[in-house]
Records
---
Amino acid sequence: MNHTEWEFETLAVRAGHVRTNEGEHSEAIFPTSSFVFSSAAQAAARFGGTEPGNIYARFTNPTVRYFQERLAALEGGESCVATASGMSAILAVMLGLLKVGDHVVCSRAVFGTTTLLLQNIIGKFGVAFSFVELTDMAAWEEALQPNTRLLFVETPANPLTEIVDIRELADLAHRHGSLLVVDNCFCTPALQRPLDLGADIVVHSATKYLDGQGRALGGAVVGDKERVGKDVYGVLRNGGMTMSPFNAWIFLKGLETLSLRMKAHCENALQLAQWLEAHPAIERVHYPGLASHPQHALAQQQQSGFGGIVSFIVKGGQAAAWQVVDATQMLSITANLGDAKTTITHPATTTHGRLTPEQKAQAGIAAGLLRVSVGLESVRDIQRDLARGLDAL
């Protein structure tokens, strides 16, 4: 059966795996730095690109290739490049597609490190950046310049789960000769496929939901054969931000249960968000599954689920927020997300802590804001743990 006929759940389990002569059922791990050639001529052909095959594990490894092909199939992309981390995936896109004199428009509602990567590192090499409100389409259009090469968004965004209309933004980008890059970390292809909506490139921190158990670092870029398979791959081959075979194997195992896990995360998150919205100590809850969310209707339209991230503002500012965090006994106090274990963090002093006060204000990072990555425990136990601090307020 051709894998193009397979449903999502089947692709997540079967796509990309080519068994060796040993006949292994689970994907093999190839922990080797290099590969042996049958002759000098074959070595020359492989290095010259006239014969496909493994060369050196920095840029060719069977286990990593299995993961790349599987994720590309899930996202509906032609090509995937796996990287050492989610941030290196974004870096590879910027290095592979930008040059001196180019301009990028980026949403203010992105992971704090993404903002700093663009401003403080990529910006040093003659690339200009404009930051706009994620949901303000007029601001996006106004920010476009003749030299705008890329538009970059997270949707849903970290940590307020704001959502932009991907198809509308992609159409805007293409009318101006630009590309749209979407960080699909919060939804994964199980809930949202940006390429189907017109986006050109998708990036992931595989560390999050693609793994699902907080075991390994990794990233990925998915798109077409020219930009991703050639330009971004060229950065990886020469720059070496390489995913290890062992981590690729972990992510392969994570993908097998992705669909089931995301459904469970969504179910728990919605119940928690509804409970939080009714709590007197909460000023506001941010979750796309709530009717009170500004983009609730859009989320219903372009996502098949609302995700597992719930953010909320505690009355009383940072002191009250920290009190809630410190009162928890089960939740993990960590900035990671997408884990089977529920995690909680205070964005203003962790994930977005290096931003200036002005940048925090523009991104909506309030002093009383908490972000919960809702895990797979009983939602009643998650509520009881948060209630320790919230009820005391």
---
Amino acid sequence: MDPATLIGVVVALVVVIVSNVLEGGNPMSLVTFPPMLLVFGATLLISLAGGTMGDAKLAFGGLKRAFTAPAPQAGELVTQIVSLAEKARREGLLSLEDELKDIDDDFLVRSVTFAIDGTDPDELRDILESEISAQESEAKQAAKFWAAAGGYAPTIGIVGTVMGLVHVLENLAQPEELGHLIAGAFIATLWGVLSANAIFLPIAARLKRLGELDTQRMELVIEGVAAIQAGSNPRIVAQRLRSLLPAEQRETEAA
């Protein structure tokens, strides 16, 4: 599990609450059900309206992934692929069948299985690149949903504030209530801006980043399997794959 998003969102909200307390405010005054219902409920429903039910399922499935999924590390596969390349060079592609049961990466298993079955290298690359494209599309769509929510939320918050101010104007005959009503009216704007910048947009950015890391990992698999099919020298395979890694992962592999 990579806790970056969980830490960032939770600590940001805590900082807001602590700042409010330091200014002499009451944190419970910020937790008001009607404006929170308006901001979160209307924002999510409007985001849903801009897509399909399938998009919403991807987005809410991605929500769990954004907070709990580990960040994919392409470097973890280099050793496995090089080991497969060594065995294939010594004993042939068919010898890799017994090795697949010990590999956890489904994409690598499928790719090697295609190679063992004798799939043409160019055709295999096309198949695997199509799978990457499909996965990229899903990741982008999930991120797009939350990015859209981040765009809608501040405006919904302003709508809530306007509604609250209308209520204030209806009660001008009760001046002792005006301060409380005006403060309550602006809670909607607060939650609109806060939810957008501390919740929705970070989730969108996280899903986009995880999609990029997945793509890097899958592209490394494609290059590795292509090298295995070609019978390349394992040392050349290792060097080639490490050259595709981000700098920090190359240093880890070298160590």
---
Amino acid sequence: MIRPETPDDYARIRAIHAGAFPQPLEAQLVEDLRAAGDHVPELCLVHPHGHVMTSKARVDDHPALALGPIAVDTTYQRQGIGSELIRAVIERAQHTDYTLIGLLGHPTYYPRFGFRPGAELGIESTYDAPSEAWMVLPLPAYTDDVRGTFHYAPAFP
């Protein structure tokens, strides 16, 4: 049920994000990342009722991934679809040369997937956000010299 997105999915993806968030920011961000070529197509995954965007990022000169936006159709929320999408991204990202996945998210939700505060690994966010909301997940390509500032793709506000 979970697979990489295709152009045939784009209208439905926009509708899912537009319905899941009160502002159009996330739906537009997904499209802007795609238009700029800053998304990672094989890691932008769809489910019949959800979507997760994964984009190129970096920790100084080290390649990294940014997770999000992620959205689930409001009718199907709290049924594990978001968790399935996150697990699928992590599984697929394990087989890449990216060093880690970074995100700003709820500090009690994402640790169940292995995310931990970026500060524990010496990785800072450019966003002024609570430190517990800035999290990273090291991937197999991660080494201890991956430290510094996490930079999202330019489409991020």
---
Amino acid sequence: MGPSPSYRMRRALFFVLAGSAGFVVDAGVLMLGLWAGLPAWAARGPSFLLAVITTWAVNRTLTFRTGAHPSLREFGGYLAAMSLGLAANYGLYLLGLILGLPPLAALAGASIIAMGINYLGARRVLDRS
């Protein structure tokens, strides 16, 4: 039968919360990288990695409540599942930079679009319902 509508709504809300936390980390680390003199395209590497660690922790704990102990294998699967969203996010981020958007604006637009792609991937790796 599948999860109830209220469960799906709660899961979507927590996914947005996890994405928002990831965005704050992504933007903060991006700004630190820019402040340190990294080019805008290079500052996204560390910012993405820390953001994906953040979203994995929140999603596995709140959104999908896996109940399993965290593992490198699970994180690797999550990172692999996020790779399509990463490609979309980074590509759109670069496009925004090429079009002259400030780095944070490019990041925000790219992140919003990639969130839907990432939800499908996270659900596939973490959802035990």
